[in-house]
Backbone:
């Protein structure tokens, strides 16, 4: 392959990425309308979206969900965060709580919309088995208290495979399958991708665009700077490999979600 042909292919690929990004800006609102009108025929817009991001630890919100938060905030959605631990694995819980609040402020979520759970049965520990019933009750009570119509969290692989991430997905899936979620609330899980796709940065965008998904959230250079600034708020976590993650992870640029199917309402289990 000649150098000229290789350069041409690279330029075409970059142009494709740019075209996808601009098309996404026009189609995100359409996706939000579709997702928030499963049980209603009325028209919706970004301002009608009340979204809850459910995470396990401080820094999950910017490491994994930054594109989603940035795009929802830009669409005038009301975005809340429910973090189910203070991140006290190394006895840094108090510091990490403040780091989380600073990160959320950068992303556009005010302190009043951030809830951080400190429960002895929900330790920040990859070896801990979080109770599905406890996590389920915390999430569903939060949904009902704030009338959310969209909940976004991890999928069954938890992006990084962390047991606490997976436990949240199990809890939300349990709520979905037992019909405990309000009719107008859509549940979405963040898609875990393979190692190669995970670490080719924004170059992964065409793959995510072509594969079917319930929701895509993509940010450009300005959004990426905000995501990076949010990550820099977590000073206690900025080890050398975090800088590599910030530079190369596609989750700093792209989020894709699948819809978690919901079961019949008012299901009785004997």
Residues:
């Amino acid at each position: 392959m000649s150098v000229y042909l290789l350069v041409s292919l690279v330029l075409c690929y970059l142009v494709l990425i740019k075209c996808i990004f601009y098309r996404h800006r026009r189609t995100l609102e359409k996706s939000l309308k579709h997702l928030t009108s499963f049980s209603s025929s009325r028209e919706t817009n970004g301002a009608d979206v009340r979204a809850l991001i459910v995470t396990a630890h401080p820094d999950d919100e910017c490491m994994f969900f930054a594109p989603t938060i940035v795009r929802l905030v830009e669409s005038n959605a009301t975005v809340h965060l429910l973090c189910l631990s203070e991140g006290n694995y190394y006895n840094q819980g108090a510091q990490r709580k403040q780091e989380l609040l600073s990160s959320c402020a950068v992303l556009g979520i005010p302190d009043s919309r951030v809830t951080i759970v400190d429960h002895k049965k929900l330790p920040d520990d990859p070896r801990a088995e979080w109770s599905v019933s406890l996590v389920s009750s915390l999430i569903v009570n939060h949904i009902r208290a704030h009338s959310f119509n969209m909940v976004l969290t991890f999928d069954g692989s938890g992006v990084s495979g962390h047991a606490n991430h997976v436990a949240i997905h199990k809890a939300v899936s349990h709520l979905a399958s037992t019909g405990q979620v309000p009719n107008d609330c859509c549940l979405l899980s963040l898609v875990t991708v393979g190692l190669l796709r995970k670490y080719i940065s924004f170059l992964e965008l065409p793959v995510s665009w072509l594969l079917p998904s319930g929701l895509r959230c993509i940010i450009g250079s300005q959004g990426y700077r905000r995501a990076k600034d949010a990550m820099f708020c977590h000073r206690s976590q900025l080890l050398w490999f975090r800088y590599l993650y910030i530079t190369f992870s596609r989750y700093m640029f792209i989020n894709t979600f699948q819809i978690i199917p919901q079961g019949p309402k008012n299901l009785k289990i004997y």
User: Anything to note?
Assistant: The chain is about 45% helix and 15% strand. The mean pLDDT is 89. The longest strand covers residues 50-55. The first helix runs from residue 3 to 35.
